[in-house]
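Sanity check

After download, print the first record. It should look like this:
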Amino acid sequence: MSRLILMTICLLLCSCSSHTLEDYREEGEGLTHALLETFQSIHTKEQLIAYLPRLQNLFDQLAEVMLAAETLKQLHPELEDKEVAFQSELSDQLCVELNRLYQMESGRALIEKSQETALQRLQTYTTSGQIVNVPQTD
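Expected structure tokens:
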């Protein structure tokens, strides 16, 4: 859960999308809402399993947005990274839904598995400064 919250906070603080940091922030916020809606659609372990590809895709897209924003900031250090108002309501909703899903049988393990590729890319970037594609392991 802490990984998701950290990823969300990073996303909301330095999000990205197309050409500006604001574009990236908006794209990240949209992906975060899509993630919340997907969480809210899951009520059984079977549904969670069925939604795993979508969850992985959303987590991967969030990582892409964060990495793109960071790349833009490195290429254009003059860009002002405006302080973004933290969206605690969205974060709270994500926490509630994530906690609910973690209560399902194997819920935590399944969700963490869906985050794996995105987290590996972010971790590789933070330790090496290199944006890499992490091969998927199934």
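If your output differs, re-run the checksum step. Summary of this record's structure: The chain has a mean pLDDT of 81.
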